[in-house]
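Final report, results section. Input specification for complex C-07:
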Amino acid sequence: MSVDVTGVDRDTLVRPIKTFSNRYVAALAVALGLIGVWLFFYSQQLRNGLIVTNLADWGSGGGVPWGLYIGAFIWWVGIAHGGIILSAAVRLLGMDTYQPVARLAELLTIAALTCAGIFILIHVGRPDRLVTSVLPAWPTRVQWSPLMWDVTVITAYFVLTATYLALTIRYDVNRLRDRLPNRLEPLYAALTVGYTETEDEVVERMVWWIAFAIIIMAPLLLHGGVIPWLFSLLPSMAGWHGGVQGPSFLSIALTSAVSGIIIIAAAFRHAYGWEELIPRAVFQGLAKWLGFFSLIFLWLQLQQVITGIFAAPTTLQHATEVKISTPLYWVAIGLVVLAMLYAFATALRPDLFDIRALVGISVGVLIGTLTEKVLFVVEGLQHAHFALYDGVPGQYVPSPVEISAVLGTVGIVVLFFLVVSKVIPVVELHAIEEHEEVDA
Amino acid sequence: MSTDDESMYTTVDEEDRQLLEETEFDAELGAEMARDAQRVAADELSEVEFYRRYHDRILEEFDVDDREIAIPDPDEVDADDVNAVDRVEEAFGGIGEALRDVGGDDAESRRSVMKKGAAAAALGLSGLGTAGATTGGNGTAGAGGDDGEGTRWGMTINLNNCDGCLACMVACNQEHNLSRGANWMYVFSFEDEGQGDETNFLPRTCQHCTDSPCTKVCPVGARHTREEDGLVLTDYDICIGCRYCEVSCPYGVNYFQWGEPDVPESEVDDDHQIDDRGRWVGSRPPEGVMGKCTFCVDRQDGQMGEDLIGTTACEEACAMNAIHFGDLNDPESDPNQHLAEYRDGQENDTSTYPNRKGHTVSTFKLMEERGTEPNVQFIGNEPSPHAEQVEGPVAYEDVGLVDDRKEVLDRGAAANGGEEA
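Structure output:
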């Protein structure tokens, strides 16, 4: 399947920058509203401490010390990792069909990583020490603490992604400069500082290598590595341990990311009449990827459930039994099953395919993966190996303060796209034009 | 020096070199220093020259030259100091053996981690030594494992003596100004299968593990093992409150300070809070950081008087002679003595069964299979996986304690106030 969108003109590409509608204002209001709701609740946490969450100590304390904040952190990091893996794959494997959504995926990565960072910030008891304690400890702690590995790799990864984006934007901004608003001139001047057309070839190679680094780093070290290792290396919690967590986390990341890209691409397509720029075939392709990743996700869940209940050690067996008797778990699994069935059904019968239905399915998948991740964290902590405590399993239902943070971060991502789409082209020039050959 | 001379010294062999290279530090520097250290030991290179030769490179590599520990400062060297060579030999001996431990293996104990520290110090790898010291590893052999050197605070808790009076919990709460429900000392009353409705008791402190997961996972080194005596402590000035120590601990001994502490800072004496290294590790934690049993670090540092060194609040409050605190490396200490006497009192019939052990006393450590090497041992029956906590003869509420801290926290949250709303 290949889609040719090279007939689309440059004006179409900069349409989001050139237009301004009531719907835009409405979307902006919703995003700011969501952020406002969160900030209102978060101010309570700043005043009173983490006591305003429904977290508590495990053990005699009768609660769980990690909850929705950590679940949402994993979820956002997953979306971020999956997003950039897809973008890098487009570049490395020459999957030109998805070129129109590659930059959207990169931008989603930046926004989602920011949200993940926010969740760490609001999760810790002393956010003011994140710099003063972490930086001095880095040289000695990085060889021991999985959390330090995590901070290190995610930071490196953020830098890679931002570099990747900054390099590819220079080409576009330079060529579309006459169509971009003058009031932002200082920004464009900064973005394209020192630009000459002779750099294109070099940048192209640099970007290739960055994409290569990302494609190696993200599955092995990030969502298939440091994030699951935060849990799977510990001796304390039965449901967390084991080698399957890496692949399992990665499958969830990819499933979530494809869903996120589908939603954002569909939103831009709808808002700016981009039927030509992001054709239906792109979504049909993404749907197949969604179906495939959902299948892997479900397969890895099956692995965990079967090994956890057949003849597992007592505590693991108990944790697994609780997991499969939790209705919310089956809601999460059901939403992903639905996505898989829809993707495969529409692959066989393309006339059944509908972008709006796919967006609905994708929203469902994101709800499902967030639910699964929160359950993984919370139920993992509820079933410690040491179960003599009356307070084990602990009780946990997220408080309004915690739930508002999820809404707030969704608002931040929406706001991010609303603002960025007014400043730079969110679809690469390469999607509609062949790369210009320049004599070096 | 000629090549022949070189061959006189044990060179850092290939295996050792690989181990060196696995560290993040300059392997070449380590190897060269190891070789020259032997020359110093053989009196062919002066200490001063040794110091000068590597001083700049060590500073470049580690930002600090800690060799003063083993090698005197050149400005202070006494030319007639005949013991200097001995000290160097001591410091640099067994390099190969020590290095092998740097590689470690899955079953690596803290002792071997500590040897890493020793090996690193011997090679002047002060940076690596520091890393060992801030992880669970003690950096020196002093607090180490079962090697009998230095102090290693620990407990023997005789469950056969405990009657579940909760006096230890009350004493701990009072001495450390704990917020309600933060039960650093916690006494389980439980029934086990096959024992009818007989109630058993198990007092649970922090296990002050030799190979503690909480110190390993701490991203900032706030949770650490104190070199001098193996206490597992939290530096309240550094802790970021991520609660990773709490989720990694198999025993559930950590209590986060979710809101304002019940006892304000103004009512807590510095003597109880600051240890002998000047670090804030004692008494209840401030808001937003993690707390847990400290084995009464203030007492061990002599802040409450010389006669309270080697005691804990819970031990002092125990009228049943169940809790025995002391230096596990000292055969004469209370925990070791109590165990020995208890075993002596329950001799086994070795005349008929000569291969049986000499006593019938059963001891255990909590979840020893987790590999944490706890420094609390229990006399009595280990609760089975089917044991269930039950109400004891004295209810927590009866002595002013709170069992389920979540109830306190939920009320505190609802009232938007401190933990005690």
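The first helix of chain A runs from residue 10 to 13. The mean pLDDT of chain A is 92. This concludes the modelling results for the funded period.
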